[in-house]
Amino acid sequence: MKIGPLDTTIAAPPPASDRKSPAAASKTAAPGTTVELSPLATMKLDAQGEGSFDAAKVAAMSAAIREGRFVVNAEAIADKLLANAQELLDRNRR
Hints:
Layout (H helix, E strand, L loop, with lengths): L21 H4 L13 H10 L6 H12 L7 H20 L1
């Protein structure tokens, strides 16, 4: 579950080695064609860009959970959930 601002931007184009051949390119959509991704496809694209993480932070949080020192800030979580819900509602109204 994503908590934070929703980002529906598309990542940079693939490297030249991943691009289709000219023959395959002729089957692609014409420039200026609008393509709408499903929410699942958007989530998958977003997840591909998030390949790195802070291993030290994960280890510290794991240790805090094991030792019973981890404190959940319910107010911060609720605020972010409400902000996400509001952002989704606003996007659907457009």
